[in-house]
Amino acid sequence: MKFEGMSLKKSFWRFIWPSVVAQWIFALYTMVDGMFVARGVSEVALSAVNIASPFVNFLFSVSILFAVGTSTIVAIFLGQENHREANRAYTQNLVVLGGISLVIMAAVWLSLDRIAAFLGATAATMEYVKHYILSILPFAWCFIISYSFEILVKTDGYPRFATMAVTAGALLNCVLDYLFVMVFKWEVAGAGAATGISQMVTVFLYLKHFLSPRATIRFEKPRWSGAQFWRVIKIGLSSGLTELSAGFTVFMFNHAILRFIGEQGIISYTIIAYVNTIVVMSMAGIAQGTQPLISFYYGKGDEASCSKLLRYSVRASVGMAAAAFLAAMAGADMLVGVFISPSLQELRDYSAFVFRIFSISFLFMGFNVVAGGFFTAIEKPGESLMISLGRGVVTMVSALGACIALMGGAGIWWAPTVSELMCLAVTGVLMYRLEKY
After folding, report:
1. What cellular component terms from Gene Ontology apply here (predicted)?
2. Mean pLDDT of the 236-262 span
3. Whole-angstrom Cα distance, residue 74 to residue 384?
4. DSSP H or E run through 317
């Protein structure tokens, strides 16, 4: 692979920074949509984008599941110098994602009203939610394939190109958001279309790389392998669930907030969710940036290098978590002001207050996400799945229920911190049992 011959630490930083930046840019896609919708339409429309966001999380989770599983297998094959099997795994992944995309698009089109209601759309937000999902739906295949290509380009040894491509898409998204929402007045549908078109452009940029002579991973006539398909699922499931859990968390919080606080609370949570997504994806960027390296050395049987990469990842995640917490505490009022107009000062103050409470959870999530990514990279999906399900479902549901029971609606904002601490205990036990690393 392209990083051979570099020092391990240099390879680590070379891979994680482009990965983290790419994750930030992916997170900013929806955040930019929200900013333009809040300013160009209304705060109610902003909350509708948040209500629809689990659908986008679902698309990305499908992509990540197959991308992480496939890239792990491809990296292991490359470490074993088996380029033909690496190419076959890559090509089969693309065919599978194309088929899944068509199924999702058809299913959502036929069940749009029920899906919008299930996500939590109210009478005030129903039409906005439906319009946003409908504007994204024709580009669902782009969301799924784009993120898969982004991870595989990094596995191919070109993390900087991956970052350049996703940056180009993000800049285009900003321009199109301004045109479609502020100039053409297409409201939330314009924001969704802007994001979809930007993702499509990114797909073609990645495709150009894989068709170029410099690519190590290439298209090859696919030979269906059921065993490899299930191996991909097994390896990538925890990473897919990590992304899906973000959408599940938004879904649970939206329903809890509507019940215990009201629709104004959804506006506050929408802003918090945008920042939380950036922080989570920063940690995921560290995990996914090191994944090709760890899998490569794991394929070579070099346990010492795997152990060093784990230590580098943990240190980076702890530093990033501390920075995110301090930034949230210092900049809460400024951030809230970007989304909520000055005429709603009471809502501004409340949103900044609960955001600071929520941000305490940032301090504990990094180790959980990085540890889950490490287990995935060394083909230990069971442990990785325990961490992913713990963070996104088991501990979050338990913490949310307990905090609401103890503190009422105010407990909603403390639940993420309690959930991360519960998951941290489980992660610590799993890592302690992994003695050789």
Report:
1. plasma membrane
2. 86
3. 19
4. helix 303-339
